[in-house]
Amino acid sequence: MRLRFIQSLVVLTLLNACVSKVDNTEKLNEKSKLKYAETYELFEKNGIQLFHLVNPESKKIEKRFAFVKSSLDNIPTGYTAIQVPIKSIIALSATQIGMLAKLKETRLVTGVSNHIYVQDQTVLKNFKKGKVIEMGDENGIPVELIIQSHANLLFYSGFGTTFPHEKQLEKMNIYCLAVYDWKEKHPLGKAEWIKLYGILTGKEQEANTYFTKIEKEYTDLIQKAKKAQKHPTLFSGNMGGDVWNSPAGESFNAILFKDAGGKYVYANTKGTGSIQHSFEQILKDNRETEFWFNPGVASKKELYDFQSKFAYFQAYQQNKIYSYSYSGNEFWERSAIEPQHVLSDLIQILHPELKLTKNYYFYKQLTK
Amino acid sequence: MILNRKHKIIFLILIALLPLLLGIHLFSGEINIEFKHFWNAIFQFNDTNTSEVIVREFRIPRMVIAVIAGGGLSIAGLFMQTMFNNPLAGPYILGINSGSSLFVAFSVMSGIPFLTSNLGTISSSLLGAFIFGMIILSFSYLVKSHISLLLIGIMLGGFASAIVSILQSLSDPQELKQFTMWSMGSLQQVEFEDLSIILFFSMIGAISSLFVIKPLNALVLGESQALTLGIHVKYVRLALIIITAILTGVITAFCGPIAFVGLAVPNLVKMIFKTQSHGILMLGCFFIGSLFLISCDIIIQLVESSIHIPINALTSIIGAPFVIAIVLKRLA
Which chain B residues have any C-beta within 8 angstroms of a chain A C-beta? Predict the structure, then answer.
């Protein structure tokens, strides 16, 4: 056992040594294997999977990994070699757990931010057994906890910065990877991150098959939505302090609304993140808007308690408010990898006449 | 209260400025609204007209609370400065706002329906302000140094913040969000229906203030001098803490913490009026405090479409350099 541990250390140290600095704007001549995702790239060269993490803002390559199954030969210059399949993972975001769950690999998770945000039963069972450690907020995780988790790879959200102590952790062969799925513009771009999880867990084939399936379902649903005669108006979001946060016109939410045949009030705004308006402006623009999506609460009463002025919205008066925030963190764990189900919900809500005849996967109408 | 010619001129200017700034404030929102809708919103309200809804539900409550919060916090600050004979005293720096925040945090994050309601938040805020006011008053008997008392106030604030941080780490996301939003400070969360409660408590505070003018004038001469003038200093101090708690508590409950108004405005008023008469100073605090907060909110409204500035941040940006200037002037 001890001998194997020493062998692993030697191999990992050798792998780690295969890194040298390269120009971050340099790209491979080959085309990335991905179709929708823009925040990472995948290539295959001499049987090695090459991974580029692309900064969502600057579009520069932040990291280069070479995922190797056995041989250390032929690793291109500038790539950090990581042996796959990975033995254990820290997943700080619910989306990452959802992706692993789809590949039935959540047993690999040894660290999460907080167990109350986890829905996956395997992770929760392992947490109870003490096999999964709570790490806390991404920016304040003690290094000792990370080491204690025996993880090889740490997934974090990467809200604009590198992971604290990243360099020191790499020296201990714990690699940190910002998962920018939340920055993807297209719902299928988010979902396409499953291909990375497939490579990391040794389930590349399963991941590709699953993605092809959801891509087809998603595009079929778009065709169904196109049959709708009407395009109901809708708005989204809620107050955060004194401002109302809505998805920008080029965001993945706006794309979902468009694909579902809805007329999003702020569809013509620029940007892929969120836009802010005063409540006055929101009321003026949306008093007669038909649907209100994603208010971030579980009941209509909660909305009224928070702000009685919401009662002026037609959508509030006619109970046309739809939220996914009623069932813990389930939406965040599953929606990125099940965009076809989110789209299906939206189409059913906006176009009941199309009679998709399915229950909602994530959404609930807020009537009380 | 005897007004000399200079005071009369200053008050005339302030009285003229107030409606002018109130008018600018009402018209400064992101949306252009015709004058007739302002009139209708008050006298012939039609809730199907969005412009009238915006005036009645957003602009009027926001304007009224700016006047009350600016005036109320400034008067509370004046009381603290006279009571502790310290120009750097104020409800924020002495930890009284922090007491409100701590108790509001307890009530919001308790999950108990009554405590999370408006009435529960107001009660908690008043209680927190009163308890922390009493604590700082008790310390004032033990320490004679002005700086020491301010440091104790800052420590109380730090202590309250630490407890709030622990509560935040234990609370569920929804409660955490609710408290975080409140703690940023805002004049926009007040609703038309809330105005009656705010006006009720503010009137109690204002009327009670009239009864402490004479004792405050005596306290300026020093505690022993006040005693020889027949002032029950102990009771006066208790009364001042209660009035401060009412004013600070109700304003903090609805607007969240607003820094520096209670510290900077009374000093500015003293510099302008150059008097020890607390009748004049209180009136001056009300007008200048209101004008200050109204002006801050006009700035916020004017830049609202491009950047959102929390009221607490703006009052701090303007107030902090002013307070530093006061400290430097005293050292010079």
Answer: 29-31, 47, 50, 53-54, 57-58, 174, 178, 181, 184, 186, 188-189, 191, 193, 304-305, 308, 310
